[in-house]
Structures are given as structure tokens and as C-alpha cells.
Specification:
The structure is a single chain. Helices cover 37% and strands 17% of the residues. The chain has ten helices and twelve strands. The strands form three sheets. The chain has an eight-stranded parallel β-barrel, surrounded by six helices. A two-stranded antiparallel sheet has the order 4-5. Helix 3 packs across helix 4. It is globular. The two termini are 24 Å apart. The model has no long low-confidence stretch (mean pLDDT 96).
Length: 325
């Protein structure tokens, strides 16, 4: 069964208080704004806020007809209660109490338990798509144990589709080449800033019929504003000066052609023929509406892409909006 995700999906790490706290009302308004903008694909994970993202997303989407949206979550990190950590903050970027520990678990039993626990947090009877989350340091177990467990759940009809999500192009390529996954979620490895997924991963996806979901198309935030500046995150940390300079050069070219950097980033990401959806996070409803408007806008002029290639800011083999596929 082929899932239709829609051109734009909502990444829900921010619902788990990524970088800063968001209250319950703002989280609910964010999801509602995405729905109103036509978004019908929502992606979450236990990792995001130690389950907070799943709880908030599940509460929000229960207002919508279940058959009308696609929801994905992830396996590979199970959450184990840690009452002693309740007085500390989470150490992995989420502004939540550390009242649970993340435990890597790519066993078949771990996959099934993780999915059951996610369904309980979401308050849903099923999820459509399950992704193996960040398997790059546990690749043998992920391929040999987690993948067959998900394939079995798919064959039973428990889930509609399976895949893997990572920022490691090598790990994703292994799954695209050697397994029968439906989707790969590529985090930050195919963006306007950098395109290493063009080397082997995306060609393999096209060859094998694996659909790509692009996450991190703003490179954690560096491309999310018209004028990149110090303090914006890159790879969830501070951007090196060389990377910031490249982002500023991209922004300057966009400005010369009357378009915005985040708008060009979304349009570029969506143009590859293997891409099924571009997933973008948002801190609030206004960001959702902005991102949806950018995704719906006319693509930047073709002269922009030619200039970026001429300036060495874009690979010449990268598909661009408006090109013949």
C-alpha cells in the first residue's frame, strides 16, 4: 500500500519542547494550524521531549477524522522511567524534566514494546508509518532484528508502511539497498546548503522505488530566516563560520532574485523526483502558516538556480523546481 503524505508535513520535535518550552495550548494551536493549512502528515518520536511530543500530538489529532491523516512515529529508543531524574533537565536538547531515560533497543521485542508504548502515549489504535530512528551506531541490530520485526508488523497489517530515519546517508543507503523499506527519512543531508544524498542514497531510492521524506531542510534552523546570523543552530549546535558564510551567500542570491531563503529551501527540497514529502517543524501556529505559504508559493525563478550553480553554491546535478524530471 502506498501512503500519500502530501507535499508538506509537520515535524513535531518542537511539540516536545525542542530548544525551549512550549505550553500545551501553543502546541495544540500549532497542530490545528497545520491541519487548516492542508497538512495531512504528522511525524513524531519517543525521543522528542521524552514522550511529550507524542502525547501532545495524539491529543491534538484526535479532533480530526483518523482516516484523513498519516502519522508516523519511530522505534529504536525506548523510554524507561527514571524518577531520580525528575529534578533535572533533559540533556539532549529538550526543555523537559529528565524523568525518563532513553535506552537504545533495536531488538524485535524492543520494537514491539516501543510501538505499544507510543500508541499508549498517542492515545491511538494505530500509526500508519513506523521508522527506525538513528540506527547508524547500531546498524547490524537495526538491519537484522528491528527491520524484520517491522516487516512482520507490516505483513500483518498492524502498520501500513515502514522505513528508517537518520542523518547518516550511509545508514540510509544500507536500508534502501538491502531491505524492503517503503520510506527513508533523510535528516539534513539533502538541503539547499548541502546535497551529499545525491551521491548514492537518492539514486538508490529511485532505483528501488523507495520514497524519501526530507527532514531538516532548514539545517536545524540556519536556513529558516531570510538573513542567517550567528546564534541560529546548525546540526543542533552553533554553525561554523564557513557554514554560516555559505548560508549568507545563499540568502544574498535569493534576495537578488526576489525570493526568500526558507522559501527556496523548501522548493529545492521538494523538487527531487524521489521525494514524497518535506517535513518542517514549527514553534507555533504562525510558523506553520508561514511555512505552508512558502510551500504553496510559486517556485523561485529558474535564474536563481543557475546563479547558485555558477557560484559554486549548488551542485549542478541537483534537480531544481521547474526542470524536466
Amino acid at each position: 500500500m502506498t501512503l500519500s503524505l502530501g507535499r508538506l508535513g509537520l515535524g513535531c520535535a518542537q511539540l516536545g519542547n525542542l530548544y525551549r518550552e512550549v505550553d500545551d495550548a501553543t502546541a495544540a494551536e500549532t497542530v490545528a494550524a497545520a491541519w487548516d493549512a492542508g497538512v495531512r502528515y504528522f511525524d513524531t518520536a519517543p525521543h522528542y521531549g521524552l514522550g511529550l511530543s507524542e502525547r501532545r500530538l495524539g491529543a491534538a489529532v484526535r479532533a480530526f477524522p483518523r482516516a484523513q491523516y498519516v502519522l508516523s512515529t519511530k522505534v529504536g529508543r525506548r523510554l524507561v522511567p527514571d524518577p531520580e531524574g525528575a529534578g533535572r533537565r533533559d540533556s539532549e536538547g529538550f526543555a523537559v524534566p529528565a524523568d525518563h531515560r532513553r535506552v537504545w533497543d533495536f531488538t524485535a521485542e524492543g520494537v514491539r514494546r516501543s510501538l505499544d508504548e507510543s500508541l499508549a502515549r498517542l492515545g491511538l489504535d494505530w500509526v500508519d508509518l513506523v521508522l527506525i530512528h538513528d540506527p547508524e551506531d547500531h546498524l547490524a541490530a537495526a538491519v537484522d532484528e528491528a527491520y524484520p520485526a517491522l516487516a512482520d508488523l507490516r505483513s500483518q497489517g498492524v502498520v501500513r508502511a515502514i522505513g528508517v530515519g537518520s542523518k547518516s546517508g550511509e545508514a540510509l543507503h544500507r536500508f534502501a539497498r538491502d531491505t524492503d523499506v517503503d520510506f527513508v527519512m533523510i535528516a539534513g543531508r539533502y538541503t539547499l546548503l548541502e546535497q551529499p544524498a545525491l551521491d548514492t542514497l537518492l539514486p538508490e531510492c529511485e532505483r528501488r522505488g523507495v520514497r524519501a521524506i526530507l527532514a531538516g531542510v532548514f539545517n536545524s534552523g540556519l536556513l529558516a530566516e531570510d538573513r542567517p546570523h550567528e546564534g541560529l543552530p546548525y546540526e543542533y549546535g552553533a554553525a561554523p563560520s564557513t557554514v554560516l558564510d555559505r548560508a549568507r551567500a545563499l540568502a544574498a542570491a535569493c534576495a537578488r532574485h526576489g525570493t526568500s531563503l526558507p522559501g527556496a529551501a523548501i522548493a529545492f527540497a521538494a523538487a527531487h523526483p524521489a521525494v514524497a514529502s518535506v517535513v518542517v517543524g514549527a514553534q507555533d501556529a504562525d510558523q506553520v502558516r508561514r511555512n505552508a505559504a512558502l510551500a504553496d508559493a510559486d517556485p523561485p525563478p529558474k535564474e536563481l538556480w543557475a546563479d547558485l550553480v555558477a557560484e559554486g553554491l549548488l551542485r549542478p546535478d541537483a534537480p531544481v523546481p521547474g526542470a524536466v524530471k
